Amino acid sequence: MKLKQIFFTVVISAVTAFAVMWGYGKYMKESNTYAGQQPGVMPSNYTYTGFGDGKTAPNAIDFTIPAESATPAVVHIKTKTNAKQVNNNLPKKYPNNPFSDLFDDDMLSQLFGGRGRNYIPEQRASGSGVIISDDGYIVTNNHVVENADDIDVTLNNKKTYKAKVIGTDPSYDLAVIKIDAKALPFLLYGNSDDVKIGQWVLAIGYPLNLETTVTAGIVSAKARSLGLNKDKNGDQSGGVESFIQTDAAVNMGNSGGALINTDGKLIGINSAIASPTGYYSGYSYAIPVNIVKKVIDDLIKFGTVQRGYLGVRFLNASDLNEDDKKRAGIPAGTEGIYVSDVPTDGAAYAAGIRKGDILTKINNNAITNGAEMQGFISRQKPGDKIQVSYLRNNKENTVTVTLRNSAGNYDIVKADAMIDMLGADFATLDAKKAKEYGVPGGVIVKKINSGALNDQTRMKDGFIILKINDSSVKSVDEMKSTIGTNKNITISGFYPGYDGIYEYPITLDNQ
Questions:
Q1: Which entry of 173, 231, 263, 357 is annotated as an active-site residue?
Q2: N or C: which end of the chain has fewer CB within 10 A?
Q3: Which position has the higher pLDDT, 488 or 10?
Q4: Domain count, the chain
Q5: Same-domain status, 317 and 300
């Protein structure tokens, strides 16, 4: 009888162990997306802390374990933007004035109707970033690497690498860069939807050009909007903000760094502070990791973010005064999103939503302000279906809305489509030629055909593109990624043999 009991005990233990291992593997597979995070793979920076065997921090108030896990995967980013001379006119082979051989050409250019030039000095800046894969993908803020000609990444172990930009999106203030390295520590994704107000969090980064710095605080609010982000066309209404607000100390240089929970997992990318002085004075803001994951995956896969649009203009119902509510027939105390306009070519109009409706839920999740709504929708792509509940005449209705892209259809947007509209043959500038010209790289306009360049500019064959909207491009792929779905761009570059940087503003119409 004893042997039989021992046998059954061994069998039950084996089955239980197998079930736990299977469940953990399934959880790891579901909780991490692309960006190099392979299902079931535990980065080395977690294994020595106890997390590798599925354990959590032994004491939630002791931050040493999550800090030790995360700091190796947070990097210091230093950028340099070269000095440049901006010239908006076409090149001239001959001097602008008869005294140019004796005096600097710009001294008398205005007297002789010459080219007006602006000189922008070299600029240097720094920020932080988070390694998200063992092969060198790093997420940071768009404003950390925006306009940079050179990007240096220094790891926690003091090793330094040159980085290239994979993709950026100012609407979300996110960017993906990459270094050529292997077997790197990286952060595991947490779930920002599970973040609770009052829970402990750690902010990790390189503030004020200091070495790795860890600060602690609590989550003080969710779904905050500050009105900072703008889309690629400079439109603030196109910015996406649904920040996690904390009181963890964050300063200049923390931008792009990690916000982690007490399990050492990434729950946000630190992005902004609320301060009258420019330094920390109580509140800091992070982009939720569930938004970060989606943006990163799109930038790596498509070169641009696949953003779904609901197709409404709105106000927070709580922002309306009592007279406005009375005129609109909104009961006092109603929470939600007041629909102020519904374009007829949008997804909401097609689903039956109209001006004056109050949006109350998305996928059965209550929404009380625009930041919450953006937080939900920003994780969707064109063609995705969502359930939207709204109030009309004090009656709640629920409809299925199929989200569209910015052009009003369901197509996946690829960067190639926009670059094709320029109407030219492009080639990556040869490294030898780049060195000869004294530039880090660029794109040659080999031949201008029919398209935007021919119709809207006086650009000539042989022009070398250095920047798109002040973001450096060193290859055709970088140029595609930088243009993305942007309709309004400014191309900056030079003509070999001529002085000055020339700029060409262009409007691309993908309708």
A1: 173
A2: N
A3: 488
A4: 3
A5: no
350: pLDDT confidence band, cut at 50, 70 and 90?
A: very high
Q: Band of the pLDDT at 90, cuts 50, 70, 90?
A: very low
Give the number of other CB atoms < 10 A from CB of residue 54.
13
For residue 161, give the CATH number of its domain. 2.40.10.120
Phi, psi of 145 (to 5 degrees): -105, 0
Buried b (16+ CB within 10 A) or exposed e, 57-82: beeeeebebbbebbbbbbbbbbbebb
Dihedral sign from CA coordinates of 455, 456, 461, 467: negative
Structure-token match 């042989």, residue found: 462
Instruction: Write the pLDDT tens digit of every residue in 467-488.
Output: 998 888 988 888 887 887 677 8
Is residue 143 part of the annotated active site? The answer reads yes
Task: Determine whether 255 is an active site residue.
Answer: yes
Q: Do residues 319 and 330 lie in contact, with contact meaning Cβ atoms separated by under 8 Å? A: no
Measured distance CA(261)–CA(464) in Å, rounded: 46
pLDDT band at 273 (very low <50, low <70, confident <90, very high): confident
> Which of the following is catalytic: 69, 225, 255, 472?
255
Q: Give the Cα-Cα-Cα angle 169, 252, 307 (nearest 5 degrees).
A: 15
Residues 374 and 485 in one domain: no
Identify the three-state secondary structure at position 408.
Answer: coil
Q: How far apart are the C-alpha atoms of 40 and 34, rounded to whole Å?
A: 13
